């Protein structure tokens, strides 16, 4: 028992190391085991602390009820799934692990240690984006899809989604930096945008544009000038170095085919929401292909609807879709409130995470990416946002209504 207590004395340091490792390795492919270790260590220490010290330290948030409802409905959907074993695997891997990371982040990340976690993130962003650029020009590695950078991530879709998730946090670091370090974060932001362009993912390009505009309107108008410069340089660069890829007939046809397939999938998914409106067809993207095999006689490369909300509606039924929309509404509302709180010393970071969530929501309208590494990265960022949130003052606590009356 004494040994456990001594280990618990190092709990905060171990938690910090776990989250720093996690945020660094999350986008890397083939790191599942290390990823799970980094996720479960803070949870294990929290449980040990609860048992040994006989106290339940749990930070209540507005996320609790929508997350609990989603977990329960996801379980019901899994029980009634067309493929129970597959749905259970996906439910454990995505939903349970993702929400466990969310609440672990909220309860185990210290406010004054958040910047160190972001340090690890910045190093990871720089390494991934630099490797992606080198990979594209044939200096290092090999692209899994011809002409599209993917760095160490599974594919260009994941790579571009990772970039749009972390880009606002890079902007935050750029705005908060002083002296010569400002140029370092400007370099990382430029590197991230260049690698995003080289991923040739149009949905992510749109999201990055939206994020830059939001940041420019609310935080720094100079970003809008930077946006114009980036667009001009990007257009010239694509024309000079890789414009042939955009002018190739096969690529243009591929983009047109992609648009038409997505529209067809969206219409198909919306029409079939009525087939299993309560519990859906079961959690997991591949259940769509199992239930509607006739669709894949036309197109064998697509096993989901390429829209997260339509797919969740099919998987979890209408109640599950409503719960997911409710959860994202609560997240955005809370982060926006933290941004507007003048007493919140981390309000710019809260806004950066708000922009990340907005960008992710736009991105998942064009693909189903609330899965795997990208879902975990989203929940980790949201958890950080709630960890730095100022708790509301009780009505008669110091600084609350009682404090006002005493004044």
Descriptive report:
This protein is mainly alpha-helical and 407 residues long. It contains 17 helices and no strands. The chain folds into 2 domains: 1-57, no CATH class; 62-390, no CATH class. 71% of the residues lie in helices and 0% in strands. Helix 4 (64-79) runs antiparallel to helix 5 (84-108). It is globular. The chain starts with a helix and ends with a helix.
Outline:
The protein has helices at 2-9, 11-25, 32-53, 64-79, 84-108, 114-136, 156-176, 181-198, 202-218, 222-241, 243-247, 249-271, 287-291, 308-340, 347-363, 372-387, 401-406. With 407 residues, the protein is mainly α. Mean pLDDT is 87; it is low at 393-407.
Kindly report the average pLDDT value.
87
Order of SSEs? HHHHHHHHHHHHHHHHH
Residues in helices, as a percent range: over 70%
State the low-pLDDT regions, or none: 393-407
Structural domain tally: 2
Our count of helices gives 17
Envelope shape: globular
Number of strands: 0
Percent of sequence in beta strands: under 5%
- Based on helices, strands and strand pairing, what is the structural class? mainly alpha
Task: Walk me through the topology.
Layout: H1 2-9, H2 11-25, H3 32-53, H4 64-79, H5 84-108, H6 114-136, H7 156-176, H8 181-198, H9 202-218, H10 222-241, H11 243-247, H12 249-271, H13 287-291, H14 308-340, H15 347-363, H16 372-387, H17 401-406
